[in-house]
Structures are given as structure tokens and as C-alpha cells.
Design a protein that fits this description.
Elements: H1 9-12, H2 24-37, E1 43-44, H3 56-64, H4 78-92, E2 101-104, H5 107-117, E3 121-126, H6 132-139, E4 143-147, H7 158-167, E5 173-178, H8 190-202, E6 206-210, E7 233-238, E8 251-254, H9 260-272, H10 279-290, H11 293-320, E9 332-333, H12 341-346, H13 352-363, E10 365-366, E11 368-369, E12 382-385, H14 391-399, H15 417-431
Parallel strand pairs: 1-10, 3-4, 3-5, 5-6, 6-7
Antiparallel strand pairs: 2-8, 7-8, 9-12, 11-12
Helix pairs in contact: 3-10, 4-10, 5-6, 5-9, 7-8, 11-14, 11-15
The structure holds glutamic acid.
Length: 432
């Protein structure tokens, strides 16, 4: 049946939303599940979801607080805001207090609010996480992409920021920095953070530092750039990655006092949209941010597992001839299949999207194409989220081994056969 004109999406949809697909991370997850439902074997390396269970103490706290039914303040539970402030204060030595923290239903939502209320340009490195640019597009913000290069570990350089700022030094800008990085798995050294901070300060650029993978720095050495540019940095964090609680939807933004006006403006929009973040989840999050021996232990083993698995996939793919970097944090790799360009072309594959589609059809390995991270379609890059393994089992195995040992992937093989199989299938597929 043909829709009458006044009901047709081409007429009635907001122009910024018309034609936009759903977010790539969610689409690949749904697609993988649908294929599994059809009886296919699928290796889920698409959605970046932590495979580790939420720490037991945090789960217990959630159970205890299931009865919390009242709306909480729009900015968040005071006790949680204080716990988050203390978390960053003790790590970075910046004098945050609870008033500087905004709690939201996921840092993704907070980023959207931020872009909605902030007037300036959004500056994002390429490659970067799939949702930064679509959020800006939905709101109608002007986006500027900053290039990064594989030879430099896909890291943003002060020179690129300066080049952009010199074009119009007074223009207000918000740069999103994300490390440990999604999709590259890379991070910054202290000297690099200091240099980035210096240039951001020179042009009074606001930095939104997405540090959601901070606790998953494989050596536990994450440092926030807020340490070097406290007055212009907003730290974004949450429970989704290091606490294994993506589905709980809890994100945090920590502001310097000088940017309190942004927090206030975001709270206005939040108060007219989602009202407040889920109460029981906030009570449980206090325990997560307060930390303690059990959580520290959980993190030590999470990092060790991720480091061993990341190294394994990296080594296998490098041996197979793929260009990529060994991850330093989080659970992503960003391979470049350019060395296989001619071979793939002979099979009708000339773009990252075609590559991922064929790989999924031929082998069941689901990964995401470089295009959704802001790369050119013909560049043969893709993101592997190396998360298809049994996180509970991996933590158990790791905790049975001395933490002083750097163990090999063999000790984990019983809990990560999917990931090992997927890696092998990918390498074989490239060489057939
Ligand atoms: N951040 C995760 C990813 O990049 C998943 C969550 C999301 O995109 O909303 O895969």
C-alpha cells in the first residue's frame, strides 16, 4: 500500500535524521544474533561489549537497592557524584568535588547532551568511535575531522590541532580525545598528553576526554589529560567497559569549575528529557567507584586477560601479513588489510564494507568496517572487538595463576576458543 504524502517519512522526518541508519555497533550485534538464531555459527567481534561479569560486590549492592524507587536529582545521586569526584581527584590530583560531576544514563547520552548545548565546532579525530559524528549530524553541528595516521599509532598530534586552530583561532571548539582508543587500542604517553594539553590551552579548546577504557589500560597506567589541562578538560567515564556493565547504562562527566555552565546547561536538557538516571544503578555505582581490594583484583585480571588475548590476535594477524598495532588498552584492534588489496579485488572486494560483509558470509566472523569510524570507503581498515570469549572463566583462570607471570594465551585457551577460532578463520580467509 502506498503511504499518503502527509504520512510519508520523506516529508515528515527531521532532515538531520532522514536516511540515517541505526548505530553500526548495535546493527552488527542484532545482525549477528539473527544469524545465530538461524543456526549459523557467528563470532561476535562487532559490538564492543565487555565479556567480564559485573564484580560481585557491585551486583550485591544493586540487589540491596532494588527498592530505591524515587526519582533522584537530575545531576545524580549526591553520594555517587562525590564518589566519582574522589575517584578522579585521587588519581589525577585535580581538586574536583561532587558538584563537578554529572551522572547520566550512559556517557553516550551525556555526549549527545553536551553537543546539543555547546555552541562551537565538534572536532573529532579519524578514526574514532562510531557515534560521535552521527550525534553531531543529528543535532546539526559542524564537524571537523582531524586526520591521524597508522605510522603514528593513530594518535592525534598537537600539529594537527594547531593547523586547524590557526585557520580561525578565536572559533569555539570541542575536541573529543579518546584513549585507550576505540577503535585502535592505542593510548598516549605522558609527554604526548602534555603536548596536547599545551596546544589545547593555547587555543582555549575544550577537551572532552573520553576515558571510558581508562581502567582497561593493559598495564594499569592510565593518566587523564585533565592532569595537565584541568581548566579545559571534561573527563567522560562510566561503568560500561571496566565494570562490565554496558547494559546498566551509567555514565559520568567530570567538569572543571570553569565549565560549570556547561554542566548546568546539560542538566536543564536532562531535566526535560530523561529526568534522572536509574536510582538502583546509581546506588550500586557508588560501590564501583569507591573501589577496594576486590575491584582492584578484578581489574588486574581483566587487564591481564585482555593484554594476552590482544597480543595473540595481533601476532596472528601480523604473521598473516596484515598491518596493525598491538593494543595498549581496551579490547579493540584496527587492522589494515591493504597488503591484500589485489587479492581481495580479484574476489570483488574493494571497500571495507564489502570486506566485512564477505568475511561474515564466508566465515561467520563479524567485525566492523573502517567507514563507520570515519575512514574512506576504499581504505581496507576494520575494527575487531576481541571480546568473544567467556569472561567469567577467563577471570577464574587468571586468578589461579601468579600475577607476577605474564602468561601466554594457551593458559586461557579453554575459555576463548571462539576468539582463537575467529582469528584463525580470518587469517585463512585472507590466504584462500
Ligand atoms: N562502545 C561500544 C562499541 O564501540 C558499544 C556501545 C555503543 O556503541 O553504544 O562497540
Amino acid at each position: 500500500m502506498k503511504l499518503r504524502k502527509e504520512y510519508h517519512p520523506d516529508v515528515n522526518l527531521n532532515l538531520n535524521v532522514r536516511g540515517l541508519p541505526r548505530s553500526a555497533t548495535l546493527v552488527i550485534n542484532e545482525h549477528s544474533k539473527a544469524l545465530i538464531g538461524e543456526g549459523r555459527r557467528v563470532f561476535k567481534l562487532g559490538l564492543g561489549q565487555s565479556p567480564f561479569p559485573v564484580p560481585e560486590t557491585v551486583v550485591e549492592e544493586l540487589k540491596k537497592n532494588a527498592h530505591q524507587k524515587d526519582y533522584l536529582p537530575v545531576t545524580g545521586l549526591a553520594e555517587l557524584r562525590e564518589a566519582v569526584a574522589e575517584y578522579h581527584r585521587s588519581r589525577e590530583g585535580v581538586a574536583y568535588n561532587g558538584e563537578d560531576v554529572l551522572i547520566g544514563p550512559g556517557s553516550k547520552e551525556l555526549m549527545f547532551l553536551m553537543q546539543l548545548v555547546y555552541y562551537g565546532d565538534l572536532v573529532i579525530p579519524t578514526p574514532s568511535w562510531v557515534s560521535y559524528a552521527p550525534q553531531a549530524n543529528i543535532i546539526g553541528r559542524h564537524i571537523r575531522w582531524l586526520p591521524t595516521y597508522a605510522v603514528n599509532g593513530w594518535r592525534l598530534t598537537p600539529d594537527e590541532i594547531e593547523k586547524l586552530c590557526l585557520q580561525d583561532p578565536e572559533r569555539p571548539r570541542l575536541i573529543i580525545l579518546n584513549y585507550p582508543n576505540n577503535p585502535s587500542g592505542g593510548t598516549y604517553r605522558l609527554e604526548e598528553l602534555k603536548a596536547l594539553a599545551q596546544i589545547a590551552r593555547r587555543y582555549r579548546v575544550i577537551l572532552l576526554s573520553d576515558e571510558i577504557y581508562g581502567e582497561l589500560h593493559h598495564k594499569g597506567q592510565h593518566v587523564s589529560i585533565a592532569r595537565f589541562y584541568p581548566e579545559g578538560t571534561i573527563i567522560s567515564s562510566g561503568l560500561s567497559k571496566w565494570c562490565g556493565a554496558g547494559g546498566w547504562r551509567l555514565g559520568t562527566f567530570t567538569f572543571p569549575h570553569s565549565l560549570k555552565w556547561l554542566l548546568d546547561a546539560m542538566a536543564v536538557v536532562a531535566s526535560e528529557t530523561y529526568t534522572a538516571t536509574s536510582a538502583p544503578i546509581q546506588f550500586a555505582a557508588v560501590t564501583a567507584f569507591n573501589g577496594g581490594a576486590e575491584i582492584e583484583n578484578y581489574l588486574i585480571h581483566s587487564r591481564r586477560v585482555l593484554r594476552a588475548l590482544g597480543k595473540h590476535v595481533y601476532q596472528k594477524l601480523s604473521e598473516a601479513g596484515v598491518w596493525l598495532q598491538e593494543p595498549k588498552g581496551g579490547f579493540y584492534l584496527f587492522p589494515d588489510f591493504t597488503p591484500f588489496r589485489e587479492k581481495l579485488k580479484a574476489r570483488g572486494i574493494t571497500s571495507s564494507e564489502e570486506l566485512c560483509n564477505s568475511l561474515l558470509v564466508d566465515t561467520g566472523v563479524a567485525i566492523l568496517p573502517g567507514t563507520v569510524f570515519g575512514r574512506k570507503p576504499e581504505e581496507l581498515t576494520a575494527r575487531i572487538a576481541y571480546v568473544d570469549f567467556n569472561g567469567s572463566e577467563a577471570l577464574k583462570l587468571s586468578s589461579q595463576m601468579s600475577t607476577s607471570k605474564n602468561y601466554s594465551v594457551e593458559s586461557l585457551s579453554t575459555c576463548c576458543s571462539n576468539l582463537l577460532d575467529a582469528t584463525e578463520r580470518l587469517c585463512d580467509w585472507l590466504h584462500t
